[in-house]
Amino acid sequence: MLKKISLPFYISLFVIGLLVALQACNREQNTKVKIGVLHSMTGTMSFSERDLVDVISLAIKEINRDGGLLGKEIEPVLADGASDWNIFAAKAEKLITTDKVAVIFGCWTSSCRKSVKPVIEKHHHLMFYPLQYEGLELSPNIIYTGATPNQQIIPSVHWALENIGKRVYLIGSDYIFPRAANMIIKDQLKSRGITPLGETYIPLGSNDLTEVLREIGELKPDVVVNTINGDSNIAFFRGISTLNKVKVLSYSIGEPEVRTIGAELMVGHFAAWNYFQSIDSDENKRFIDAFKREFGAERVVNDPMEATYIGVKLWAQAVKSAGSFEPLRIRNTLAHQSLNAPHGVVSVEALSQHLWKTVRIGQVRDDGQFDIVWSSDSPIRPSPFPTYHKKQEWLKRLRELELK
User: Fold this and answer.
1) What's the predicted TM-score (pTM) here?
2) Intervals of the chain under pLDDT 50
3) Does the chain have fewer CB atoms within 10 Å around its N or its C terminus?
4) What are residue 3's DSSP bridge partners?
5) Angle at which helices 391-403 and 176-190 pack, to 10 degrees?
6) How far is CA 384 from CA 54, 128, 246, 284, in A?
7) Cβ-contact 198, 219 below 8 angstroms
8) CA–CA separation, 48 vs 51, rounded Å?
9) Which residues pair with 75 in a beta bridge?
């Protein structure tokens, strides 16, 4: 005769099963560390930012393949900023408070970075920002792996005036980076007695460039300094290709963007960066080969991708040195880090938390790659606040710019 099994017995089994499951979950969590990946997977900026997510994935895979960090596997948590700086701030808050990430790698536009900055600082957390930008900022909680103005904007404008011509037109997307970058450029032009022929800003994502292209055609500048970001560049370069003899110097156009826009529309135009895929070095070849094996032989890499990759590798080095994932301990350890990066040796400048970087100017070839036509002799020390004004004067001018 079968014996009846009481309800408390089933409850006991359920509780035991739940405890076993929780223990297994805790063991799994104890073997992993989460990192936040905060980029636009949708909207106008996904045109550029999706590539950065791919290169973070590559760096994580390499680190995990080599045994992870401090006995833990790295697990990315992807958050879509959707090309909206308000969403970026909310997603940063969630990554820190709910997802409990150890670090965040993210943002492209300065508007997104500025919206995320107070969130990172409020929680005394840590973010790596990979883009060249206008400078005029320092944060104890952000590591800036892209170029400062003296590592991109200022030397490239000097080069353009000497090698292309002195008739300059300024065009950019309508947000803080293009406006601040052009403020610095106009200072530089004024010091040489030059006034720009025109200065125009278009909304992010806009494809209506009819009037500005007409004006450029009428004014016939020698060089158009381009700070447009996102997929508006497609319409811009399609239009500019119909204007003879006008050269463009861009600060947000790299190899993937050339490939998407079409090399045939961009041959002969220029870009200023620290990294180009065409750099001939063993470390760069290894980086390119690893990326192509992972994502396809047809894919290309660019400066923000390399700066993102540098950030993940520097963070991993600092974790090992500190023996901890705690953000503030990592930040302090980063001040002593250097790396043989694909574009050359980089070092963290302790006071500003920016990188020493080599400056390069490239010209688009018909295969979509860049011929490097100029480079600095050695890595340049970062100067987030150009030295010809005091820091307080720069901050005053920036506040006035933000109010416009």
Assistant:
1) 0.89
2) 1-3, 9-10, 13, 20, 22, 24-28
3) N
4) none
5) 130
6) 28, 16, 31, 27
7) yes
8) 6
9) 34
